[in-house]
Design goal:
heterodimer, A: alpha+beta, Gyrase A, domain 2, Elongation Factor Tu (Ef-tu), domain 3, 7-stranded mixed β-sheet, 6-stranded antiparallel β-barrel, B: alpha+beta, OB fold (Dihydrolipoamide Acetyltransferase, E2P), 6-stranded antiparallel β-sheet, 3-stranded antiparallel β-sheet, 20% helix, 37% strand
Chain lengths: 376, 123
């Protein structure tokens, strides 16, 4: 892939007035009208995000789920068709190589991995999968996310049907469910998921139809295009870690606050990469933990700021931070010593020689608004 | 009164040996939504090219440099409560600080409005 690799919506973003920046080897829209307005629009209506830079992979063949389980700690073989799960790609030492979504489409496993890590992920997966499992990279295909409280209402206006009679249409899906659909004769892979904390959908669409679908969506009153800037502030408010920042190869799942990704069955079998080192921290034996911080004052602390003790010595790191448009105050994620991770604990921070104070706050910072099945 | 501009996208209004400094419309547009501004306190001594103020947008922090040397006479307190003034009125209400000029010769080499426009167009 060269430096000038173009995604399906490259020229469309420019025509929409986007400011483009280099990201994960592509030119991507950082913002259109402004991060603050785009962020708030997504929380109130519906935002359309181009996430075509992310890697869309298929694992095809008998035993794909069991094979994938060698390098992820989730219970993939128990995933029913149409269901999806958040999981972690693990190095042999248990470090996190990526975070990803895995869907059982009924015919194969469909993975969405991060854009910046996708080529390394593919190489690592190939080296860990048996020859009987094929790995297909849907390179250059479109992936759009429609997120916000009006996402379902908006998508319903597009007359998207289940792939066959009696199969679910997008509006029939609950959070973390997925189905193949048809928009006219265009096949779409639709899941009810996303990374903003809002209800919404991720839509896999053939490259040749991506622009038409984006155009049809932004033509709706409730939908505006949203850039990567607001995607970052939205996921930060939702308490969702960003790979390469809050999660790295040096991070273990328990210290990252991702115990939910270590399924019971897999903990018991302890047969995934790095299991011994990871499970030694489970459930609460990590020396450090990822926490949310509300920062005093108005000035944001950002990635690279440090957590300090009374003597000023570094005892932790801020891995994400910014100004929360919803809360109108600065928020951050940081790794702190486990003894300082309880909600309400005051955390001393330093950024460019200046002291700041944060208070440990349960995440998400802003309530999640997922479309979950009714409790029976 | 004359208005000068720097390549760091500050404007400076000069009236005798007094100056008012802010960031240009181009600069605020590039920064995006501004959520925090820290201006120097009156009495602070600034050196040309030294850090004078901090401006933070949703995405990033940027330093504002002193375009000339001198003593700060007033910071714009309105920006503490309403940093978005820098977006809505960058070259008027959103001024950052006022200062005295210790060396008027430092103004040489700064751009006038026409030269600044040509500079921005070239970016």
């Amino acid at each position: 892939m060269g430096d000038d690799a173009k995604l399906p919506l490259d020229s469309w973003h420019r025509a929409q007035g986007a400011r483009m920046v280099g990201f994960a080897g592509y030119e991507m829209p950082i913002q259109y009208e402004g991060i603050m307005a785009e962020h708030l629009w997504t929380r109130e209506a519906a935002g359309l995000f181009d996430v075509s830079h992310m890697g869309q992979l298929q694992l095809i063949g008998e035993g794909a789920a069991e094979a994938l389980e060698a390098v992820v700690p989730g219970d993939i073989s128990a995933l029913k068709p149409g269901r999806m799960r958040y999981t972690l790609l693990l190095a042999p030492d248990g470090g996190i190589l990526d975070d990803l979504m895995v869907t059982n489409t009924g015919r194969h496993l469909y993975l969405v991995v991060n854009g910046a890590t996708k080529h390394a992920d593919i190489a690592y997966l190939r080296s860990n999968l048996p020859d009987s499992v094929a790995l297909k990279h849907l390179e250059g295909e479109g992936l759009l996310a429609l997120q916000g409280p009006k996402a379902a209402e908006a998508l319903a206006q597009l007359d998207i049907k289940g792939f066959e009679d009696g199969w679910p249409a997008p509006g029939d899906l609950y959070f973390m469910q997925s189905a193949p659909c048809l928009w006219g004769d265009v096949p779409l892979g639709i899941s009810r998921s996303g990374y903003t904390g809002e209800d919404g959908f991720e839509i896999s669409v053939p490259a040749a139809h991506t622009e038409a679908l984006a155009e049809a969506l932004v033509a709706l009153d409730a939908v505006k295009p949203i850039g990567l800037g607001a995607r970052d502030s939205l996921r930060l408010e939702a308490g969702l870690p960003l790979y390469g920042h809050d999660l790295t190869p040096e991070t273990l799942p328990v210290e990252a606050g991702l115990n939910f990704a270590l399924s019971k069955k897999r903990r018991e079998s302890a047969d995934f990469a790095g299991a011994e080192r990871i499970l030694a921290q489970y459930p609460d034996k990590a020396d450090r933990l990822r926490v949310g911080l509300i920062v005093e004052g108005r000035q944001p602390v950002r990635e690279g700021a440090v957590v300090v003790d009374d003597s000023g010595a570094e005892i932790g790191q801020v891995t994400s931070g910014g100004f929360s448009p919803t809360l109108q105050q600065p928020i951050a994620m940081a790794y702190v010593p486990a003894s300082l991770a309880a909600p309400g604990t005051q955390i001393a921070l330093q950024q460019r020689g200046k002291p700041f104070t944060g208070t440990v706050t349960p995440m998400p910072f802003v309530p999640q608004n997922y479309h979950r099945p009714p409790k029976s | 009164m004359a208005r000068y501009f720097t390549e760091e996208h500050e404007w400076i209004d000069v009236d005798g040996d007094h100056a008012t400094i802010g960031i240009t419309d181009y600069a605020q547009e590039q920064l995006g939504d501004i959520v925090f501004v820290e201006v120097p306190e009156s009495g602070a001594m600034l050196e040309k090219g030294g850090e004078a103020a901090v401006v933070e947008s949703v995405k990033a922090a940027s330093d504002v440099y002193a375009p000339v040397s001198g003593e700060v006479t007033e910071g714009n307190d309105a920006l503490v409560d309403e940093p978005a003034l820098v977006n809505s009125s960058p070259e008027e209400e959103g001024w950052f600080f006022r200062m005295t000029l210790s060396d008027a010769d430092e103004l040489e080499g700064l751009m006038d409005a026409k030269a600044y426009k040509a500079f921005v167009d070239s970016l």
